[in-house]
Amino acid sequence: MARGLDFKQKEVINIKDGKSLGFVIDVNANFENGEIQSIIVAKPNRLLTNVMGKNNVVIQWEKIIKIGEDVILVEV
After folding, report:
1. Sequence-separated (6 or more) residues with CB below 8 Å from residue 63
2. CA proximity to 73, closest of 4, 6, 12, 5
3. CA 28, 31, 33 angle in degrees (round to 5)?
4. What's the confidence (pLDDT) of residue 4?
5. What is the pTM of this model?
6. Which of 8, 13, 30, 46 can bridge 55 by disulfide, Cβ–Cβ 3.0-4.6 Å?
7. What is the reported pLDDT for 53?
């Protein structure tokens, strides 16, 4: 099981079109069972925005296909 810190600053790529969705800036976790529920991605060129900014994308855990060293592949 991956830790939330393992996701920080990884690039997120949509496998449907190969486009970059941005970089992981935070994760949403269930603290009762310790499971990660979703990742929060800042759109490209938006890394300096607020963590809960309107330019962020929330990607549910079920949409994550593969987690690599540098990138996370999702299907959205």
Report:
1. 74, 75, 76
2. 12
3. 110
4. 54
5. 0.79
6. 46
7. 61
pLDDT surpassing 80 at residue 3: no
For residues 7 and 54, what is the distance between their CA atoms, to the nearest angstrom?
20
Instruction: Tell me which residue has tokens 């941005």.
Output: 22
Q: What are phi and psi of 68, to 5 degrees?
A: -105, -175
User: What tokens were used for 72?
Assistant: 């996370």
Strand partners, 59: 39
Phi first, then psi, for residue 32 (nearest 5°) are -75, -40
Strand, coil or helix: 8: coil
